[in-house]
UniProtKB/TrEMBL annotation, chains A, B:
One Pfam family of this chain: CbiX
Alphabetized PANTHER family for the sequence: SIROHYDROCHLORIN FERROCHELATASE, CHLOROPLASTIC
Molecular function in Gene Ontology: lyase activity; metal ion binding
Record's protein name: Cobalamin (Vitamin B12) biosynthesis CbiX protein
CDD domains: CbiX_SirB_N
Keywords for this protein: Lyase, Metal-binding
Amino acid sequence: MKGILLFGHGARNPEWAQPFHRIRDAILAREPAALVEPGFLELMRPGFDEAVDCLVRQGATEITVVPIFMAAGSHIRKDLPQMAANAMDRHAGLLIALAAPVGEAEPVLAAMADYAINAAPEI
Amino acid sequence: MKGILLFGHGARNPEWAQPFHRIRDAILAREPAALVEPGFLELMRPGFDEAVDCLVRQGATEITVVPIFMAAGSHIRKDLPQMAANAMDRHAGLLIALAAPVGEAEPVLAAMADYAINAAPEI
């Protein structure tokens, strides 16, 4: 069974996690049977490992990690592959695939552009 | 005249700025006369101040800062208002408005949810 891990940086302010819960809710609204959990790099729980373990407990055998990042900085290029490798070592038979950051997806950028235009009326 | 400042965190990898240029291009494709520039908090140029000065040189008298952030962490809650206040002090008559982070916009979150579902086929 497949799962989705919404990977975020994390922040000290607990409200920072809200968009991740809203993305999760939007996924579940479209795919009620989906296994989807947020997982954060730092400052916030659940951490990446906790999210992987949670998805595995729910029956996930393949996890697609979707970085909710604008682009691939060092956290995505270095930290994430290492965390994914460690998680696959920890869970025999688990496959983890890493998607490109959402900020590289054209429809996401188009939605951001629309938002920026609407945020600056009379442009 | 109004301008849009696409405010990002910045990263060491120059490619990290690409989504900001793509958002800028998407805005200009819809609004060819728009004044729009990226501006970064750290690690990357142009910095916020450089972006403000660039927009002012182009004739902007009102700048809407659109945080290309998932949510309002301390950079948005504390650093950004101070940088905006300093920029208004530096430019007599300039008005700077701060929009909510793009990650709080429903259409942006919906696009991210779609991307996540498509990134994990057979969900």
